[in-house]
Amino acid sequence: MSEKRDYYEILDVSRDASEKDLKKSFRSLARKYHPDKNDSPDADEKFKEIQEAYAVLSDPEKRRNYDRFGHNSPGGSPFGPGGFQGFDINLEDILGGDFFSSFFGGGRRRSAQNQGNDILVRHEIPLKSILIGGKVEIDIDLPISCDDCNGTGAKDGVTSSCSDCNGSGQVRVRQQIGPFVQDSLRSCQTCQGSGRTYAVKCKTCSGSGSITGAQTIRFEIPKGAQTGTRLRMRNKGQPAPFGRGVSGDLFIELIIEEHSWFERNGMDLIMSLPLGYSDLALGTTITLPHIDDKDLTIKIPPRTNSGDTITIQSRGVPSSRGVGRGDVVILCKLHMPKKFNKATKKSLESLRNELSGEGETLDRIIDDAEDRRR
Ligand SMILES: [Zn+2]
Ligand SMILES: [Zn+2]
Q1: How far apart are the CA of 187 and the centre of ligand 1, in A?
Q2: Ligand number, closest to the Cα atom of 187
Q3: Which residues have CB less than 5 Å away from ligand 2 (the ion)?
Q4: Residue 123: closest CA among 9, 229, 17, 268
Q5: Could you say which ligand is closest to the alpha carbon of residue 193?
Q6: pLDDT 10s digits, 240-294
Q7: pTM of the predicted model, to two decimals?
Q8: For residue 209, how far is its CA from the centre of ligand 1 (angstroms)?
Q9: What DSSP state is assigned to residue 48?
Q10: Counting beta carbons within 10 angstroms of the beta carbon of residue 110, is it exposed (0 to 12), middle (13 to 18) or buried (19 or more)?
Q11: How far, in Å, is the centroid of ligand 1 from the Cα of 31?
């Protein structure tokens, strides 16, 4: 058997460490090596070692003995002939409730029983509304606390203290984790953590404590919002179970409707503009209605290529930080008519050579490739 390590060394404290120092060090080491939190194979052993060291040093008499005799106390092991078997202290008190709540179903265990669930509602808005912001009013069905029973679910709101948990809503559960006994608190199953029970259900809400009713929700669309932006409305969610505690939150998730021609790229709005050959060749000006209610004037310069882009600055989506606006980026494309009439065909035929560009085809291919690489 390997040499037993020094208790002070295990807890990483000096020999004159105060009770407070001991507790502090134990706490952080126990958190680190608790077998539920630490997967390493020696975590169990380390955790046991830490507990044993703390069990001895936190007891003034055992500590005095240890200081004098070390591990070879004349009375044998301070834990009796079988040595250290485990710890019968309330780890929750020492480590704090939050430490354990993270084991048992989420960090909100304590408040979860006092708060209703959150509700998520998706709401579609037109692209325009993220440019100008604005107020929205919607009617949606939401659960609200039942008035007839004050949200308790009991007929006329008459409840009595739960006898299984004495009204606390929690029961103490003793658990064996490896060689250790650990006390922890669990939500009482009889009253689902409410601490209250009742004999007769409320008819209005069938005992659930909440009913669904239409509610008007008002909110403001933040400028520059995007699909997935969530607005939180505190305490507009599911009412607390049994009418004890606060309602959860309501989240409105914004979905931006698809625009007929714009696509959004961050703060920029992108569109493609199909134009006839003459418009691209000779240049033109196009005016379009824009979502900021001011017309968008697009100047196409002469000899614009299909694939060229035109950027109109500061007509895109406003920044969600409140300063500046993105651009409108227009991709010019050659629009080819489905068919030509005879006269047009004839004119085009006569222009064929004129319009085919300078040089040989192969030269144009090479020039274009060079342009792309630049
Ligand atoms: Zn109970
Ligand atoms: Zn009710």
Answers
A1: 8
A2: 1
A3: 146, 148-149, 202, 204-205
A4: 229
A5: 1
A6: 877 878 899 999 999 999 999 999 998 999 999 999 999 999 999 999 999 989 9
A7: 0.58
A8: 17
A9: H
A10: middle
A11: 30
Q: How far is the centre of ligand 2, averaged over its atoms, from the C-alpha of 313 (Å)?
A: 58
pLDDT, tens only, 48-76? 788 888 888 888 888 888 888 887 766 66
Ligand in nearest proximity to the CA of 154? 2
Q: Identify which of 148, 248, 240 has the alpha carbon closest to the alpha carbon of residue 195.
A: 240
Mean of all residue pLDDT scores within the chain: 84
Which one, of 145, 143, 192, lies nearest residue 164 by Cα?
192
Least confident range of 1-10, 150-159, 239-248: 1-10
Q: Using the structure block, give the residue that is written with the tokens 């009439």.
A: 341
How do strand 328-334 and strand 268-275 relate by DSSP bridges? parallel
- Judge contact between 84 and 215, C-beta under 8 A: no
Q: Which two tokens stand for residue 107?
A: 């960090």
d(CA 249, CA 131): 27
The β-bridge relationship of strands 328-334 and 296-300 is: unpaired
pLDDT of residue 78: 63
